[in-house]
Specification:
UDP-N-acetylmuramoyl-L-alanine:D-glutamate ligase; 13 strands; nine-stranded mixed beta sheet; 10 helices; four-stranded mixed beta sheet
Length: about 325
């Protein structure tokens, strides 16, 4: 992909409106240092020096889209609690439309607290309810989706298996978007595999792909295009989901794009340093959907999302990538 072509696609990012549907959460970071071991138990004592909050889960997908210049709407469920109010406040600050956030007083806002010392995550603890949302809440989410669809170019479905997606709700949303030619993209979850038939793009990681295909997991090989188990999984999922673009993320081995009627296309990683993979999948699905909406072909969109992922894993904490960082990554890694 040439730099001129990249710039052409990036220039269209601010003209796109994207709606993100899924499991929103609040990421809470406690930053500190370790200088001793506790006398009470053989565990490190972290002296907290600061704390920070970021939108997480589907809200982090929205945040990534906004950082790339898109107009973004978010649809999800929060509790009637401080975490929900904080999440809405953070999204409002970033000019993300939050009218689609539905309050359910019966369940808490998903909150993930990570303790980080010397740039290393020490422990994470989660406060959430992963039970399926009530029918009345599903109906409210679908109502918000109905209102949003006429104005959007793409929809991103972000499933963290925290209760928002049922097959019925997801199917109705997909059926509404498909005839309108809206680009649909999903980040699946291995704990609850939905029927993703006719979706534009889907981005499982290797483990999720094997689980969805019902194939025993096989360790990767260095030569991705000679990885026979991966190719079998790719072919199976293309048929199972009737998906147009299956982008399997492979960590240090990059990504592999599967499309009907095409040979698998391997995209090597461009990550220079890996400090934190938290939220990297959010960056991939956000960038892929936005690039497709902006007119990039599937290979170009996959390459752009690969560069975006390479940028964010080089940062500590839940991070985003800007258009300038994308341009710099292409300049550094493409010849």
């Amino acid at each position: 992909m040439t730099r001129d072509r990249l710039q052409e696609v990036l220039n269209r990012f601010p003209k796109q409106t994207i709606v993100v549907v899924g499991d929103v959460m609040l990421d809470h970071f406690l930053w500190g240092r370790v200088s001793r071991i506790s006398p009470e138990a053989p565990v490190p004592v972290v002296e907290v020096t600061r704390e920070s909050y970021f939108p997480g889960g589907a809200a982090n997908v929205a945040r990534n889209l906004r950082a790339l210049g898109a107009t973004v709407r978010i649809i999800g469920v929060v509790g009637e609690d401080d975490a929900g109010r904080k999440l809405r406040e953070l999204l409002d600050e970033q000019e993300i439309e939050t009218a689609g956030l539905t309050v359910d007083p019966s369940r808490p806002t998903s909150l993930k607290t990570r303790i980080v010392a010397h740039n290393q995550q020490v422990v994470r603890f989660d406060r959430e309810n992963s039970a399926p949302i009530a029918r009345a809440t599903q109906d409210r989410l679908f109502h918000h989706f109905l209102q949003a669809v006429p104005q959007v170019k793409a929809v991103v479905f972000e499933d963290y298996a925290k209760g928002v997606f049922t097959q019925d709700l997801f199917g109705k949303m997909l059926e509404l978007a498909f005839p309108k030619g809206i680009i649909t993209a999903a980040d699946p979850n291995s704990r609850r595999v939905l029927d993703y038939g006719k979706i534009t793009a889907i981005t499982p990681n290797r483990q999720e792909a094997f689980a969805a295909a019902g194939v025993p997991y096989a360790e990767p090989t260095d030569d991705v295009l000679s990885d026979e188990p991966l190719k079998v999984v790719g072919d199976l999922l293309l048929k199972k989901w009737a998906v147009q673009n299956l982008l399997v993320t492979l960590g240090e081995h990059g990504m592999c794009l599967f499309r009907p009627g095409h040979k698998p296309h391997h995209i090597p990683t461009v990550a220079q340093q890996v400090f934190d993979v938290s939220g990297a999948g959010d960056t991939v699905i956000a960038t892929l959907a936005l690039a497709l909406a902006a007119g990039a072909n599937p290979v170009e969109a996959a390459e752009i999302s690969n560069h975006a992922a390479g940028v964010v894993v080089g940062k500590i904490g839940t991070a985003t990538c800007s258009p300038d960082e994308l341009t710099a990554s292409f300049a550094q890694n493409c010849h």
